[in-house]
Design brief:
The complex is a heterotetramer of chains A (257), B (65), C (225) and D (219). Chain A is globular, with a radius of gyration of 20 Å. The two termini of chain A are 29 Å apart. With 257 residues, chain A is mainly alpha-helical. Chain A has one domain: Up-down Bundle (Four Helix Bundle (Hemerythrin (Met), subunit A)). Chain A is 78% helix and 0% strand. Chain B has a domain of 44 residues. By secondary structure, chain C is an all-alpha fold. Chain C is 85% helix and 0% strand. In chain C, helix 3 packs antiparallel against helix 6 and helix 7 packs across helix 8. Chain C is elongated. Helix content of chain D is 31%, strand content 26%. The radius of gyration of chain D is 17 Å and the shape is globular. In chain D, a hairpin with a 2-residue loop joins strand 1 and strand 2. Chain D has one domain: 3-Layer(aba) Sandwich (Rossmann fold). With 219 residues, chain D is of the alpha/beta class. The chains are: A mainly alpha (257), B mainly alpha (65), C mainly alpha (225), D alpha/beta (219).
């Protein structure tokens, strides 16, 4: 593991790798987003119960899935940062956190505007929404802890530890919230949303959803890479390689950023 | 195509406000993050220029003294 | 060599002595707990039914909030006077010292809560039949608060404005505890068996006590430098 | 590892630092620093404020990780033999580690017990020697900064640790206190101990051989 990771402990090598893989996320991400949007909004058939309102699923579900996925990847970066003392991994934690928080917020917001026409209320303490809300708190905690430190290295390490503690806790939170929800279940309306995530969803709806899930992954990963590269440049702005990259900026403006 | 007309597409069977606000907020957030990253890079570029200029001034002062 | 057990005992003895000489720090969270609990009848009305209905949640939320007040003390004073550094230089694994700190914190903050728990139940009109289970949830849950709290304090101890941040970090992590504790008490109120949630709380207790010292150690290493 | 066992042997290498580097924030404090502390030696680390003296001491104790390099105690990396090393090392930092709620005696009793050498009787004589007569059982918060520091320094008379790492031990001491401390240093190194310290005051090298290492402030 260390042998494999070691070259990327150097900021410059990480930056170069990032520049290389960025287009592989950004371009498919943008293309799939375009396809998924048109397909989901215009071509997928309406739902027999919810009519057109179900189309929110095409942003809600991808955001919800990746909000969790990015938390796990943030914790993995934190683990690498702590075990092998790799600074670029700390920076990755800090690059992922805001993107993950944004995805969580998106899933909450779209869940609320979906809930309003379906349930007649903006917010229900549905298990899904509640655990997303807690996930948002966890992201905010990681970001707030980092910002609170004056010493950026100490902040990065503290945030990594918190991310790890959080990821151990997430399954427990998840399970407890679902259990709590069945305990206090007053109606069965939440099943309306849950139905879409079962395998019984019609293929005409499933395919655009799958496209959107991959589209979101591409976009979010591209954002993380862009943020990570910015952080690398900012920390190493005195170093020749960073100055070279920043000076040559204008001509490769379009694909370097 | 599921919609007969442009206006039907906008109306979304009466759910237009919800559907479009969900999509708008989603891509607004993603766009904001992307813009911030691009803006940050521009700032860094300025910062690097400033630093190089400072370095040159220091070296010039050293040579002249 | 004093041995791990000997050092554990020494730290516990010293910290109990220190804590017994700053009594106001111990009393304040307790008074806070009492005040918060008595605010609820004033806020939602004195109807016995509604009070009995919300009692488990109110007691547990108030206990969590009051725990947040006293947590900081676990490492903050030691950080300021250098005793934390010395603790990290003891000839024993830091986890042992951390466990001692957690144990002392639990004794000084949770035991008083366990003592006044019947009073809280009384104020909120919780049926007598559920008192035992309420007490058990507090007995099983408060060590989890102390141990998980130690992680948060270890991470924020070097910060000047750690207080609000500490709550932001910790409260989301303690949500499962709140859920199962209130569920157990509610089950007891409605005459059902509370064994399930209580068993889960016991599992939390074991997991937290085993894993927290490692996270605390990592956090202290970050904070003390 | 007690001082007695080392007493009659030839100088042993207690502590060896090789290629230490420390970076704080953006600034390199020092790089490729080497030092070898043998029994019977006193090392003084000199340098202006901010040069990294305290950081170096803390790296030597194991409180702070070095960015590069290694610290070895009796030929073994201190990360591998942490407990053994901490048993044989006494560190007094800027913050003395004296609990203000406890009395001088209680503080000393605690440190003696955790080092595995519990006190048989309250150390009244020692406290009188370090100038705390009559203040033995007052909580330390009622004492002045200098007096609190003397409580911490009194540990030097109770410990059997061969290696002492002291950050500005002479701060807040009067002339008599400094002389007393220097006498204790001389006694310690004569019986096979070693000391690494920082100090603004010049140390009279008459009583013991003094090695010096200078850190510069690097921009």
């Amino acid at each position: 593991m260390w042998r494999w990771l070691h070259p990327y402990a150097k900021s410059e090598a990480t930056f170069a790798l990032n520049q290389k893989i960025l287009p592989w996320f950004l371009i498919p991400g943008l293309l799939l987003t375009a396809v998924g949007l048109v397909w989901g909004l215009a071509y997928a058939p309406p739902d027999y119960q919810q009519g057109e309102s179900y189309r929110i699923i095409f942003v809600h579900v991808p955001a919800a899935i990746w909000s969790m996925g990015f938390y796990v990847s943030m914790a993995i970066a934190g683990l690498i940062a702590l075990v092998w003392q790799i600074r670029t991994a700390e920076l990755a934690v800090l690059a992922i956190a805001p993107v993950g928080a944004a995805l969580t917020f998106i899933s909450l917001f779209t869940g609320a505007v979906w809930g309003q026409p379906m349930w007649g209320t903006w917010w229900v303490w549905d298990a899904r929404l509640t655990s997303q809300l807690i996930l948002l708190f966890l992201y905010l905690g990681v970001m707030a802890l980092y910002v609170a430190f004056e010493d950026e290295r100490a902040g990065g390490k503290a945030a990594s530890i918190l991310a790890l503690v959080g990821v151990i806790n997430i399954p427990i939170i998840h399970y407890s919230v679902y259990w709590w929800n069945t305990l206090h279940q007053q109606s069965t309306i939440t099943k309306v949303i849950t139905r879409f995530e079962s395998p019984s969803i019609a293929p005409e709806m499933l395919w655009p959803l799958v496209v959107n899930i991959f589209a979101f992954m591409g976009l979010a990963a591209a954002l993380v890479i862009m943020r990570l590269n910015n952080e690398l440049l900012r920390r190493e702005i005195h170093r020749p390689w960073a100055q070279k990259v920043l000076n040559s900026g204008d001509k490769e403006n379009s694909n370097a950023v | 195509m599921q919609f007969d007309s442009w206006s039907a597409f906008i109306a979304m069977g009466g759910y237009g406000v919800y559907v479009w606000s969900a999509f708008f907020v989603t891509f607004f957030c993603i766009g904001l993050l992307a813009l911030e990253a691009v803006w940050r890079r521009t700032k860094l570029r300025d910062e690097a220029k400033k630093q190089q200029a400072r370095q040159q001034r220091i070296e010039k002062a050293k040579r002249e003294s | 060599m004093a041995g791990a057990m000997g050092i554990f005992v020494q730290i516990v003895k010293r910290d109990l002595r220190v804590a017994s000489r700053q009594r106001s720090d111990l009393l304040n969270p307790l008074i806070f707990l009492l005040i918060v609990v008595s605010l609820f009848p004033l806020g939602v009305g004195p109807g016995p039914d509604i009070l009995a209905r919300i009692a488990p949640g109110v007691i547990w939320v108030s206990a969590l909030l009051s725990a947040m007040l006293g947590l900081e003390r676990m490492f903050r004073d030691d950080f300021r006077d250098g005793a934390l550094e010395q603790m990290m230089l003891l000839p024993v694994s830091l986890e042992v010292s951390v466990l001692a700190k957690i144990a002392v914190h639990w004794v000084m903050t949770a035991v008083p809560i366990l003592v006044i728990a019947p009073l809280l139940a009384l104020l909120l009109n919780l049926p007598m039949s559920a008192w035992g289970v309420l007490w058990l949830t507090l007995l099983l849950g408060t060590p989890v608060i102390s141990a998980a709290g130690a992680i948060g304090v270890a991470l924020t101890v070097s910060l000047n404005k750690g207080g609000a941040l500490l709550s932001l970090l910790l409260l989301p992590l303690l949500i499962p505890l709140l859920i199962f504790a209130t569920a157990a008490v509610e089950a007891a109120v409605s005459g059902l068996s509370a064994t399930g949630p209580l068993a889960l709380m016991g599992a939390f207790l074991v997991i937290t006590i085993t894993l927290a010292p490692f996270a605390v150690k990592a956090g202290l290493r970050v904070s003390v430098n | 590892m007690a001082a007695e066992t080392l007493e009659n042997s030839a100088p042993t290498i207690l502590l060896a630092a090789s290629d230490l580097s420390s970076i704080r924030g953006e600034r390199t404090l020092f790089a490729n620093l080497n030092m070898t502390v043998r029994t019977g030696e006193v090392w003084q680390i000199e340098g202006p404020n901010g040069a990294g003296k305290s950081s170096l001491l803390r790296i030597l104790t194991g409180l702070l990780p070095a960015q590069a390099g290694d610290v070895q105690f009796l030929g073994q990396s201190i990360r591998q033999c942490r407990d053994q090393y901490h048993q044989a090392m006494l560190f007094i930092g800027h913050k003395a580690g004296v609990k203000p709620e406890l009395t001088a005696i209680e503080n000393l009793e605690f440190y003696a017990a955790v080092q595995g050498q519990p006190l048989q009787a309250p150390p009244y004589e020692l406290l009188a020697k370090v100038g705390l007569v009559g203040l033995e059982d007052i909580p330390a918060q009622g004492l002045s900064a200098g007096q609190q520091r003397r409580i911490a320094l009194a540990r030097l008379w109770l410990t059997q640790a061969p290696l002492w790492i002291l950050d500005e031990p002479f701060t807040a001491l009067d002339v008599a206190g400094i002389a007393l401390l220097e006498a204790r240093f001389a006694e310690h190194v004569a019986t096979g101990g070693a000391i690494v310290l920082t100090s603004h005051q010049p140390i009279s090298a008459a009583r013991f051989p003094l090695q010096q290492i200078a850190l510069r402030y690097q921009h």
